[in-house]
Design goal:
Distance between the termini of chain A: 37 Å
Largest sheet of chain B: none
Radius of gyration of chain A: 20 Å
Oligomer: heterodimer
Helix content of chain B: over 70%
Strand content of chain A: under 5%
Number of domains of chain A: 1
Helix content of chain A: 55-70%
Order of helices and strands of chain B: HHHHHHHHHHHHHHHHHHEHHH
Number of helices of chain B: 21
Distance between the termini of chain B: 60 Å
Order of helices and strands of chain A: HHEHEHHHHHHEHH
Largest interface: A-B, 85 and 87 residues
Strand order of the largest sheet of chain A: 2-3
Structural class of chain B: mainly alpha
Structural class of chain A: mainly alpha
Shape of chain A: globular
Number of strands of chain B: 1
Chain lengths: 324, 547
């Protein structure tokens, strides 16, 4: 049994390592997804490091402020970035048992997503032009179903893992004898649907689109430039990593390291990179094989996710009934 | 001595009354500072509420409650005549239910009457449709106390009777009644808040939603208490009481702010506002804080109760019969729906009303709020801070109340800690700020908005073409199209109006017509009626004799 200070130091180091890794790797992950997508379409695609260049470019450009914007114009990108940044620190990456683990309650996480979403919507409404406002209205619609779906999926996890923190769910799924169940399949489908919507990927939104009328996430930050755009784009990259971490830590928890066991770290890190790469490839393949749907099809898509989440819960209830 | 013969009136304070008096205090103070201190009716209204909260016997309770109803009716009447009639009808209905209920022996009949009486006063679905009409009518200071205080007094009566007076006869289905009514209130209230264009009506709809949230918490606690689940009972009570505390701070703040918008612009219709943050930075900042509470965002006062409530619903879904568990799963989905809609409504309030470009000259020329209301709002905002950042302390202060309502309650520590989140955000902000300062290009340049490449507006439109800006209606259009027309029906009518109030009105109309017909009968018709009645009577008598 290790003594307390050493465990604490190990967990602190793991947490710092986790923080450094997520903030460093997030742009690369987007680069990998974009590259894989281009490859799948038979193109060469931009270099893996392109997102870093983009961020550096934004850093070196002066920020333009529309004359119709209010003083709060600069507040919204900061709020989006901070909420996403805190959320990404709460979700375990390569190891469980981080110092932030007790904070990582799923509902807190949903709340942090809500802050980021509200700030992004307000940023879209800030300048008072059509595209931002229309996109914010659509985002409001999407969020209604996404949040409901996320909550019912969470119910299934809590029933199985007896814990509401992401860390606890991950540990329970990694060590417990959960097995493969229909409920988890449904929950996975529902979670992926919400993840695609939240990160603004096909089929609900097109990150590579250039038509303002069809944009949702991009249209809300249309007026932002320079360091404000840097924060918003970086937050979007962090969000992609966050959702991959979340999916991975819940559904692929095998091989995750323990923060207080330094010997398990290299394996955990390696597997984390492999999992992220695999998920990026799957995402790219999925994106090239589907088309973006009309805006008013998205509520049906997310409504189906919500029903799947409810079904996952119902199946668990029935299983508990039969089992007892 | 006033009161029932031989009994008089008694005042008795316990933890529950004290809590609700504390809930009432700040908003009354804020409203008084905001300009209501000269109105005698307002103080009678406050007196009624205090009397109802401090009552030691049923007569005093009813007396205070009805004093509150009557005074608030006068206040609504001063603002607008039209909803006042509807309001007094509901108040009379509430009295008709409450007065027999408090004198009945403990049992299900008494509980149903209490729920009808207090639910009608608190705006619990399906008896809520008066609330979005009546609450916005009086001046802002009164609206604030009606929404933040009067509703709470009704809930106080509900809590006192459901958990204490009628406790010996408690049944699990009592809780289910509250949960179902609460969920309906949440969905309808949040949806209408998203769609309403008038700021004060929108805030009143949001009050319906929050009353629903409190009712769900109470219902879970009541059911768990009757079924002997002390942990869940404590969780539900904590959620409901904390929600009542938080709502009593941010909703009066928003109503006072709406009053200042009305004063400065002349309208509270979101479709005529816009860009108010420029002319009213202090008012806008305070409204932003209130809206964060209304949207139940983390680090705001509204999140901790929402957090507890969602955990209570999850806890309730984890045990019990399969039908109940499926029901709680659906309730969870409905609460998620409601939370996201409340967020949309709050974003719409700030984004359409205070950000963007002015939609009218009055909005462009709006000046910052007056001193009194701003001080009142700042007071409420200051009190929101401990609720937002130290919810555990507030919960610790609520322990005696929870113990009083559910003596066996097992309290657990709150798993949501805002301060570490603030610390994390601060660290990230410091790191990002360092990078931006060290390597970034500082300074900003003001330019015309890019707007996807569209040209500048002509010089005679200093704020651009107002028609190119999404309106409040336009912002809500996707939600209206995808959800509201399914749930609320065409024209987004309230289902309570459609299925409850309209048939009642029709029945009333028919009754009036019949009565009028009888009143207008000619002398011949009356004589014929009397004669026919006599013949029938004799016939019946004869048949009875013969048989």
């Amino acid at each position: 049994m290790l003594n307390f200070p050493l465990v604490f130091v190990l967990r602190l180091v793991a947490t710092l390592l986790h923080a450094a890794l997520v903030f460093a790797v997030a742009p690369l992950l987007l680069g990998v997804v974009t590259k894989c997508r281009a490859w799948a379409l038979g193109r060469r695609g931009p270099p893996f490091l392109q997102p870093y260049h983009h961020l550096y470019k934004c850093l070196r450009k002066s920020a333009l402020v529309p004359e119709t914007a209010t003083e709060l114009f600069a507040v919204w990108p900061v709020a989006v970035f901070l909420a996403t940044g805190v959320a990404v620190l709460l979700v375990p990456g390569f190891c469980t048992g981080l110092l932030t683990a007790p904070l990582s309650d799923f509902i807190t996480l949903i709340g942090l997503f809500a802050i980021a979403r509200a700030a992004a919507m307000l940023g879209g409404l800030e300048t008072g032009f059509g595209f931002g406002g229309a996109a914010a209205g659509r985002e409001a619609l999407f969020s209604v179903f996404a949040e409901a779906a996320l909550l019912v999926v969470l119910l299934g996890f809590v029933l199985l893992a007896h814990s509401a923190t992401v860390d606890g769910i991950s540990v329970a799924f990694a060590t417990g004898h959960i097995g493969i169940s229909v409920s988890l399949g449904f929950a996975l489908a529902a979670l992926l649907a919400v993840a695609l919507t939240e990160t603004g990927r096909i089929p609900t939104d097109n990150p590579a689109g250039h038509l303002e009328l069809a944009m949702v996430h991009e249209a809300m930050m249309l007026e932002y430039s320079g360091r404000f755009l840097l924060l918003l784009d970086y937050a979007a990259m962090l969000r992609l990593l966050l959702w991959m971490d979340l999916t991975g830590t819940i559904f692929l928890p095998f091989g995750m390291a323990r923060a207080d066991d330094i010997l398990s770290w290299p394996g955990g890190l390696l597997l984390w990179v492999v999992k992220l790469g695999a998920m990026a490839a799957v995402l790219a393949l999925f994106e090239v094989s589907t088309a973006k749907m009309r805006v008013f099809r998205v509520p049906e898509f997310l409504g189906a996710a919500m029903l799947l989440g409810i079904l996952a819960g119902v199946f668990l209830f029935v299983a508990a009934r039969i089992g007892s | 001595m006033v009161g029932l013969p031989g009994q008089g009136m008694h005042v008795r304070l316990d933890a529950l009354s004290l809590l609700f008096l504390c809930i009432l205090g700040p908003q009354v103070l804020a409203s008084a500072v905001a300009g209501m201190r000269g109105s005698v009716t307002f103080w009678v209204f406050v007196l009624g509420m205090v009397l109802a909260l401090a009552a030691g016997d049923a007569f005093t309770l009813i007396f205070g409650f009805e004093l509150m109803s009557a005074a608030s009716w006068l206040l609504v009447l001063q603002g607008d005549q039209k909803p006042a009639a509807f309001y007094i009808t509901i108040a009379v209905f509430s009295a008709v239910c409450l007065i027999p209920a408090v004198f009945l022996p403990a049992g299900s009949v008494a509980f149903v009457l209490i729920v009808l009486g207090t639910g009608a006063k608190a705006g619990l679905a399906p008896l809520h449709s008066w609330l979005p009409k009546a609450h916005p009518a009086p001046p802002a200071g009164v609206s604030a106390v009606m929404s933040g205080g009067m509703v709470k007094v009704a809930l106080y009566v509900l809590i006192r009777y459901a958990f204490m007076v009628l406790a010996p006869a408690a049944q699990p289905w009592w809780g289910v009644v509250l949960i179902v009514a609460g969920i309906a209130s949440v969905v309808i209230g949040a949806l209408r808040a998203m769609l309403e264009v008038e700021m004060k009506t929108m805030l009143a709809c949001s009050t319906v939603e929050h009353v629903g949230l409190i009712a769900v918490g109470l219902g879970i606690a009541l059911r768990a208490k009757a079924m002997g689940d002390p942990a869940l009972a404590a969780l539900g009570l904590q959620a409901a009481l904390l929600c009542a505390v938080a709502h009593a701070l941010f909703k009066p703040l928003l109503f006072l702010g709406a009053g200042e918008v009305k004063h400065a612009v002349g309208t509270t219709s979101l479709n005529w506002l816009g860009g108010l943050m420029r002319g009213q930075p202090r008012l806008g900042g305070l409204m932003l804080l209130g809206a964060a509470g209304m949207a139940a965002l983390p680090l705001g006062p509204g999140f901790a109760p929402e957090f507890l409530l969602l955990h209570a619903v999850i806890g309730a879904a984890a045990t019990g019969g399969i039908l109940a568990r499926i029901g709680f799963t659906a309730a969870l989905a409905a609460l998620g729906l409601g939370a996201a809609l409340a967020l949309g409504a709050a974003v719409r309030l700030i984004g359409i009303g205070f950000l963007g470009r002015p939609r009218s000259l009055h909005a462009a020329a709006a000046e910052d709020g007056r001193r009194g209301p701003l001080i009142g709002m700042a007071l409420l905002a200051g009190l929101m801070l401990p609720v937002a950042l130290l919810p555990s302390l507030v919960l610790a202060a609520l322990v005696p109340v929870v113990r009083l309502l559910a003596p066996q309650a097992q309290l657990q520590a709150l798993a949501y800690a805002p301060l570490p989140l603030v610390l994390l955000a601060f660290i990230i902000a410091a790191a990002a700020g360092f990078v931006l300062q060290r390597w970034g290009v500082r300074g900003t340049r003001e330019v015309a908005a890019w707007n996807g490449g569209f040209g500048r507006a002509p010089a005679w439109l200093p704020f651009g073409d107002p028609a190119t800006q999404p309106s409040a209606t336009g912002f809500a259009e996707p939600v209206a199209r995808a959800i509201a027309r399914g749930v609320l029906g065409r024209d987004a009518t309230d289902p309570a109006e459609l299925y409850l109030m309209d048939p009642l009105r029709l029945l009333h109309l028919r009754g009036v017509r019949v009565a009028e017909r009888i009143r207008r009968a000619t002398i011949r018709e009356r004589l014929a009626f009397v004669f026919a009645a006599l013949v029938l009577f004799l016939l019946a008598l004869g048949l009875a004799e013969g048989g």
